[in-house]
Amino acid sequence: MIKQVVTAMLVVSALCAASLAQTPGDGKAAAEKAVELLPGLDKRLIDTTADPCADFFKYACGNFSKLYPIPNDRSAYGTGAIVADYTERVLHSMLEKAAAGGAGRTPNEQKIGDNYAACMDVETINQWGLKPLQPELDRIAALKSKDALPELLGHFQLIGVNAFLNFSEQQDFKDARKQIAAVDQGGLGLPERDYYFREGEAAEKTRTQYVQHVALMLKLMGEAESKAAGNAQAIMQLETALAKVSMDVTSRRDPNKIYHLMPVSELATLAPGVAWERFLTASGVHVSELNVVNPDFLKGMNALLASTDMETIKTYLRWQLITSTPGYVLPKALDDENFDFYGRKLRGQPEQRARYKRCVQATDAALGEALGQVYVAQEFSPANKQATLQMVNDIEGAMDQDIDTLDWMSAATKVRAKEKLRAVADKIGYPDHWRDYSALTIMRDDAFGNVLRATEFENRRQLAKIGKPVDRGEWLISPSTVDAYYNPSMNDINFPAAILQSPLYDSHASDASNYGHVGGIVGHELTHGFDDEGRQFDANGNLADWWTPEDGKHFEEKADCEVKEYNNFVAVDDVEVNGKLTLGENTADNGGLRLAYIAFLADAKKKSIDLTKAQGRYTPIQQFFLGHGQDWFGETRPEQLRLQVQTDPHSPRQFRANGVVQNMPEFGKAFGCKTGEPMMPVNACRVW
Ligand SMILES: [Zn+2]
User: Fold this and answer.
1) For an engineered disulfide with 196, which of 243, 332, 590, 661 has Cβ 3.0 to 4.6 Å away?
2) Which residue from 656, 451, 417 is spatially nearest to 536, judged by alpha carbons?
3) How far apart are CA 592 and CA 395, in angstroms?
C-alpha cells in the first residue's frame, strides 16, 4: 500500500506484474513447502489424461494445483509466486545477516539491515501506536480554511498520500528528451473508478464492505462509533464524486487521452479553487508547463472542493493518510483491519503474510537498489547475463526477419519499424550505475519514520528529475523483482536478475524449453514496442505516428481479431476478459511467442537438431510449446481473479497459455490437432 509517485502513466507494460508476483498481504502456514525453484520443463505438472488439443493449459500444467495448492498467505500461486518465494528466501537470509551485522557493515548494509530490523520490531511498533502519525494528523486538524489546502496537499504528495490527486514526473510523451511534471487523477480507496459504479451483487457487496472498512479504521483511530459510520458514508460520497470524473483503466491505455501539455497558468482556468503555485512550491517543484493528464478530472475536483464542507474534507484527509500508510508500521488492530478488507475480502486471501516476508518486501520497496546490489553480487552470474543477452539478440534478429515477411505492411512502414527495432535498448539484470541512498536516514528503532523518509526520499528523487536530461540507464523496478517491462518513452526492454531464474530460464533445461519460456518473455517485451500502445511511439520514444494511414488501418483490423478472441474468455462466474484492456498484453504474448519460435528454429538449424524427433517423450517443438504453457502454471482465487480482470491489463494465466497457441497453427501441427478443435480454430488471429 505504499503510494509513491510512480511514473505517472500506465505505459509501462510488464510481463506478469501484480497478477503473479506481488500479492500484497500474505501468513506463514503452507508457503514454506514449495520454496524450491522448479525445472524448465516439469513433467510432473503435465496432466497426460487431458487432451492438449482441447485445453493446452490443462495438459501442460493440470497437475500443478494438486501438487502445490495455493498457500493460505497467497491470493494466487504459480510461476511468478514460486520464483518470488524463492527470491524472498534468499533476500531474507541476506537481511538477517545485515540486521545482525554490527559496526563493520557498509552504509548500504546498515540501511537494509536496520530497515528490516525496525520493520520486524512489532513490539516497538505496537507500543508507539498512532503517535508517529500525530504530526500529520495535527496538520490536518490545524486547517482553518480551504485556502490552506495547497500546502497540505503538496506535502502529502511528498509523503505518498495522493489525496484528491496524484502529482509526479514523467518523460514528455512528445519529446522524450524532457522530464516534465504531471498532475493526474487520484484520491480513491477502491482499486479503480468503475468499482464505484459497477452493477451487480459482487460489486455492491464490495462497496458495502468498503464503507464498513472505512468506518472501522476511523473508529480505530479514535472516533466514536456513531460518528465514524456517518463519516465513512461522507468519504464514500466524496470518492464516488472523484471517481465520476476519473478515467477508467481501459481509456488510460491510450497515450493521447492522457497527454495534455499546458502552461501552469492554465491550471487556474481548469481548477481556480486551488492556488497551484503554492501547491507546486509545497511539492518542491518549479515549472512553467506540465502534463494535465485528465483535464476533466481537475474541473470536477474543483467543483467538488467548492461544494464540500471543511469538516468532510478533513475527515477524508485523515482517511487518505491512514489508508496510504503501509499496514506493517501500524498498530496490530489497524494492520489486521487493513488486511481484512484489501487482502481477505478483495483478494480472497485467507491469511496475512508472515512478518518477515512483509519486511523483506518493505525493504525492497524502500531500498530496492541497495538490496539489489547485494543480491546481484551473490545470485546473478555473468554466464546468466551472457545467455540472456544471446537470447535477446536472437529474438531481435527474428523480429527483423519477421518484419520482412509481413504481407500487410508497406515498405515505407517496414523501414520505420526496423529503425525502431534497432534503437531498442536491452537492459539485463541490474543497472550500470547504482542509486545513491546516502542522504536517506534509516533508523533501527523507527519503522514508521523509515517508511515516511524513504517515501519522501524517492518522491523528491523523482521530482528532481524534472527539467534535467533523461537518465537512460535508470530502472523502474529493482533487480530482485520477478517481472520485466518495456518502456515506450525510453524504447527499452528491462529484465531484472530475479526473473532470469528457473523455470523461466533454466541452464539445465533443453534449448527448446528455454526458448518457450524466457524466449517468449523476451519476445513479449520486445513486441510491446509494437502493440496498439507502443506502436504509437517512435524509435526515439516520442509519441509520433510513423505508420502510413493504410498500414495503421491494417494493424487495427488485425488487433480487432484479438480483441474479439479474448472478449470471449470467461474468467470467473459472469466476468469476461476485457479484450480492449488486455489487447497490448495479448498482442505481446502472441507476437512474443512467435518471435521466440522463429529464433528457436534458426538456432536448431544452426545446431542441426531434428525438431520432429522425440527426445524423451516429446519432440523439441513440443518442448518449446510446453515451455510456453508452463510459463503460466498456477491457480488464482476467484476474488483475486475478479479483481485482476477488472483492473489488470494482463489476461488470466490460462488464457495467456491457450490464447497464444490457438493462434499458432504450428502448435496444432506439433500435437496432431485437427482444424476446428479448440486449440486449432479455423479463424486464428495474427498481428505480429
Ligand atoms: Zn507485458
Assistant:
1) 243
2) 417
3) 9
